[in-house]
Amino acid sequence: MEFLASVDTGPAGRRGLAEALAPELRLSAREVETRIQVAVDLRRRMPGVLAAMRAGLMDGYGARRVLQVTAPLSDEHARQVDALLADKLADAAVSTWQPVNMARCVARLVEQVDPGGHAARARQANAGRRVELQHGEHAQSRLTVDLRSEVASACYARVDAMARRLRRHGETRTLDQLRADVTADLLLGNDPGVTVPEAAALVYVHLPVDAALTMSDAGCELDGYGPIPAPVAREIMTNPHSTLRTVLCDPATGDPVDLGRTRRRPSAAMRELVRVRDRECTVPWCHRPARHCDIDHQAEWAAHHGPTSVANTAPRCRRHHRLKNAPGWTARHNPARGTTAITTPTGATYTGRRTPILTPNSTSTAARSRPDPNEPPPF
Ligand SMILES: [Zn+2]
């Protein structure tokens, strides 16, 4: 990386340099050009990430993910994100370094340093929405649609819910096959032969009360994705035909205060609150959405006939629910604090912490803009 950055002579000569280096590096000229660009961007915009790579803590793939997330920022804002990220990573859990977790963490920092630019960035990215048909091998082709994240999430949730319902009614096709077939049926105007209630395909948008009241533009999140611009979240909240569900959150604690619905049985309401609060499987490197997870009682509570309450339960995907009781695996989870410690059969222990829906702002604004180094890491 540092070699590539050091030989670069600027954008004008970059293509020629890439052509010259390509045979030596045994890569395509285009790949060499990309790597030079990455190296130059890291040195100019993200020296902390470059230092982490030098220390062997991050690989090229992780660094590219960070660069993609910070790409729309000015150099100054990018360097601010880099400094905040270095602070955050100084004592972060190992799972924070995994590319998906890292990208989410960086997305929150981007919103923090440039909250005003969020809506503009989203608008600019949305202008590039498109449908693409790519022909592949073995008589298979791929159809991709670029959409706003909340639209894509709602589409996927509905297709997924339909596929799952078909699967329960004796289908032999796999879920992947069913989702593909249901999508094709819907696009071609054919009846997929199944309907799902709205609740089965719900996607949540978390909105701090002050953002809902347009007093702030920070802290709006789409489940399974991350921060979204406040104007988009408010539009979803006020649109009576939206298939997305808005969850209002307390800006002081970051906890959900209102699910926007009153007529729910307590147990169903509780399960829903746990899913809304934890959002994903509690294993720090698993991002399975909570709506497809089991609501797991903590063993020690079950043994002591602990109450089935929000404070005693957490979502755990089927795979990790089974793994919890497998030989050599131990899992300790504190649902109230959102902390998890998992010991694998190799004896290594990994700790993680639920990312709060919002950054609580009950402390001073100074403390918010600069994270307390004594705070536990977010994952
Ligand atoms: Zn899991």
TrEMBL record:
A Pfam family of this chain: DUF222
Biased composition (Low complexity): 336-356
Originating species: Prauserella rugosa
Domain named DUF222: residues: 13-278
Family annotation (CDD domains): HNHc
Top-level division of the source organism's lineage: Bacteria
Protein name per UniProt: Uncharacterized protein DUF222
Signal sequence segment: none
Compositionally biased tracts (Polar residues): 358-367
Organism classification: Bacteria, Bacillati, Actinomycetota, Actinomycetes, Pseudonocardiales
Disordered: annotated span: 327-379
